[in-house]
Design a protein that fits this description.
It contains nine helices and four strands; from the N terminus they run ββαααβαααβααα. By secondary structure, the protein is an alpha+beta fold.
């Protein structure tokens, strides 16, 4: 089992499990089934479409575009997940912790021709096996990798707030966090607790304390959970 460290903009390292060859192949075949189902529908539609030769050709080209642009459009539109990756709990992320942009997705998509199409996946399999970071050639060129993710949790999953109206935030400074800050805190806290990584937990608490401008409390776990509670309470009825 390989792991990859992602350094976030907040200078906190999050460790993800790199997607293995089996995971990638599984996602690939699921996507292939989706594309195949679409092609069958197109063939049925095209067979029953009567028009001029030019009209038929134009329609065929238009209907063929989703097949060629499937990975590029879906990964860009759904934050790094095609249908196959979604089902297999995989996601494309940047190694520097930033959000993948259209350029990164485009580079991955262009090099997919060499990685998967022309070599029937051979190049991608060899590269992923050797690289150890869930990366095929397209990922290496784009600075991305594919990682395994857990089921997305809401802020309330860490919350122990019983009544919205009665909860009094312990750290009102939590209002200064952004949604992205809260998401990173949530994910890093979950990772640290699952791995029983006290060093990561302390590094996160130190960084968060500096961001909101308070002295770090002694109990890192309680502090971070409370902060997420406070953030949820303070932003529940506001657009943050």
């Amino acid at each position: 089992m390989d792991y990859v460290n992602i350094q976030t903009a907040q200078n906190v390292a999050i460790q993800y499990e790199a997607a293995g060859i089996g995971d990638r192949i599984g996602a690939y075949f699921i996507d292939a089934l989706v594309i195949s189902a679409y092609i069958v529908l197109v063939v049925i539609l095209f067979a029953n479409f009567s028009s001029s030769e030019f009209g038929s050709t134009a329609l065929f080209v238009i209907l063929s575009l989703p097949v060629f642009l499937y990975d590029l459009v879906l990964e860009f539109a759904t934050d790094g997940q095609s249908v196959g990756k979604k089902i297999m709990n995989l996601k494309v992320v940047m190694l520097d912790g930033s959000q993948p942009n259209i350029g990164a997705y485009l580079l991955r998509w262009l090099l997919r021709l060499a990685d998967c199409t022309l070599s029937t996946g051979g190049v991608a399999i060899v590269t992923i096996a050797i690289n150890g970071k869930g990366q095929r050639l397209g990922d290496i060129a784009a600075g991305t990798c594919v990682v395994k993710i857990r089921k997305q949790m809401k802020l309330e999953d860490f919350s122990t707030i019983e009544a919205q109206t009665n909860y009094i935030p312990a750290y009102p400074q939590a209002i200064h966090l952004s949604d992205n800050d809260a998401a990173i805190i949530r994910e890093t806290l979950r990772t640290a607790l699952q791995q029983q990584n006290d060093a990561l937990l302390n590094a996160l608490a130190v960084k968060v304390s500096a961001i909101i401008g308070i002295e770090k409390p002694d109990d890192n776990k309680i502090f971070l959970k409370t902060l997420l509670n406070d953030y949820a309470a303070l932003t529940r009825n506001t657009s943050h």
